[in-house]
Amino acid sequence: MYSEKVMEHFANPRNVGEIPDANAVGQVGNAKCGDIMKMYMKIEDNVIKDVKFKTFGCGAAIATSSMATEMVKGKTVDEALKLTNKAVMEALDGLPKEKIHCSVLAEEAIQSAINDYRRRSGEDVPEDKEYTCEH
Amino acid sequence: MDNNATTSLKKEVLDAMLPYYTDIYGNASSKFYKVGRDAEQALYKMRESVAKSINAPNVNEIYFTGSGCEADNWAVKGAAMANRKKGNHIITTKIEHHAILNTCEYLERHGFEVTYLDVDEYGFVTPEQVEAAIKDTTVLITIMTANNEIGTIEPIKEIAEVAKKHKVIFHTDAVQAIGHMKIDVKELGVDMLSLSAHKFHGPKGVGMLYIRNGVRIDNLIHGGGQERGKRAATENLAGIAGLAKALEIAVADLDKNVAHCRKMRDRLIKGIRDNIPYCRLNGPEDEGRMCNNANFSFQYVEGESILMMLDMNGIAASSGSACASGSLDPSHVLMAIGLPHEIAHGSLRLSVGEDTTEEDVDYVVSVLPSIIQRLRDMSPLYEGVE
Ligand SMILES: Cc1ncc(COP(=O)(O)O)c(C=O)c1O
Question: Residue ranges per domain, chain A?
Fold first, then answer.
């Protein structure tokens, strides 16, 4: 049901962990629905120098977190904001239909962390949405 | 480690089936030539054997079906439709297999009223609850013998007495129970009972519904006159031969298998409890739990991830998480025993069988703790817990 790429990222996830001096932290999802993604970033001069994640969820949630962090590492904030769930999915050679929401969460987790960074920089960014279990 | 899902086909069972794919290929309804008659006679013997295995008073109370699901569908729809003049109320529980629950929901859409009884934190329903739910319009009570997810064994004999007292038809889904506890339809006092061959080392795609003589039930499958006109379809002779043989063996070896499974199950439960913190056993402790079932919830992690890591280590298991089932909600059984969603998402069912060895159990106990730890180290819910 999962592609080899998904299995590979699940078995050897990249960028797992926390960044103690992160200046951008975002969390999306809801334990009730079975998946939560938390992203930590260290952003310098608008460039994502480091990114790490922690995820509670199914195999696809872990694999999409891993892939998304790889795709934004070293990118500028503006580039990272352009990352779509579709791009994450394509990079993983696709996801089963009922797991597409995991890639959406990954996209939103990146955005949530960057929004946190912007708020910290004094920008007026709206609050993250509440998560209900409707994938 | 997923014997509640299905079991291996026994060699003796396969041997009992093979002649019906080769020499005895006749149609049991073709009585005017020898291969047909041979098939008819063989079918009678199989029916006789199954009746004996579950202690059915009459051979003609055994009806073969295409699966456990079909037996369940037939029992519920057939009894509901045949007794519609009497009433439209059905009693069941919240923890039945979907073969029962979805059938009840279907009947609700067609004018029936269904009471889904609550269960306690271990999955038990009481005869008192059943009695309190009975109305003048109740035509059927259907409650499973043993639960496929958490192993709870329900008080079937006592519920049957209640049903009899109120003259309501009582069906039980014994699909998981066969081979794991004594099943005697006379002693249990049930009106109908479903079973499925692949759960006790028989072939897939064949089941049986016991219907006590005198119980009114409509056909589910209309057509020819097979199964005394109650279930049309040319009989799956090889499958039925496999069911009958597997059941004979399951009954003959019952005590031995129960003792073995219980030993393996208890070793597994102890090993997991001793080695993994923040876990809970779902379902009853010992008494009242099916001998081969263990079901745990591991806090802070999600079930599908556990299954995938177990699979990478060559271990097959099952989970009640939403992810694992491809739905939005975790298992209805885990919800019914009152688990919060996040605990239900972290569930793992391990079910042993007669071919499970101590080495198998010890292997699971050796790899599972590090899998859970690895996932916890990745989980934002676990932060600050250590
Ligand atoms: C309790 C219960 N009832 C019914 C079934 C369905 O049996 P079958 O797979 O033969 O349709 C199963 C098996 O999944 C079961 O565990």
Answer: 4-120
CA distances from B330 to A34, A133, B83, B333 (A): 9, 11, 35, 9
Q: What is the pLDDT of residues A102-124, one digit of tens each?
A: 999 999 999 999 999 998 888 88
Pocket probe for ligand 1: among B100, B178, B194, B199, the residue whose CB has the most ligand atoms within 8 Å is B199
Q: Pick A56's closest partner by Cβ from B328, B329, B381.
A: B381
Question: What are the structure tokens assigned to A36, written together?
Answer: 């939560």
Q: Which amino acid type is present at position B112?
A: F
Distance from CA of B267 to the nearest CA of A (A): 28
Q: Which fold has domain A4-120?
A: Sufe protein. Chain: A (3.90.1010)
Q: How far is B328 from chain A (nearest CA, A)?
A: 7
Q: Which atom of ligand 1 is nearest to the CA of B207?
A: 10
Across the interface, which of B329, B377, B381 has its CB nearest the CB of A31? B381
| Span from the CA of B68 to the centroid of ligand 1 (angstroms) | 5
pLDDT tier, B310 (very low <50, low <70, confident <90, very high otherwise): very high
- Under 8 Å CB pairs connecting chains A and B tally to 74
Instruction: Reply yes or no on whether B279 is catalytic.
Output: no
Three-state SS across B291-351?
CCEEEEEECCCCHHHHHHHHHHCCCCCECCCHHHHCCCCCCHHHHHCCCCHHHHCCEEEEE
> Given an 8 Å threshold on Cβ–Cβ distance, is B301 in contact with A56?
yes
The helix/strand/coil state of A34 is coil
Burial of B181 (0-12, 13-18, 19+ CB in 10 A): middle
Q: CB–CB of B129/B93 below 8 Å?
A: no
Instruction: Write out the H or E segment, with its range, that includes residue A132.
Output: none
Q: How much is the ipTM here? A: 0.92
d(CA B150, CA B127): 20
How far does B120 lie from chain A, in Å, by closest CA?
22
pLDDT digits (tens, 9 = 90+) for B246-260: 999 999 999 999 999
pTM score of the predicted model: 0.91
Q: Could you tell me the two tokens for B322?
A: 């939403």
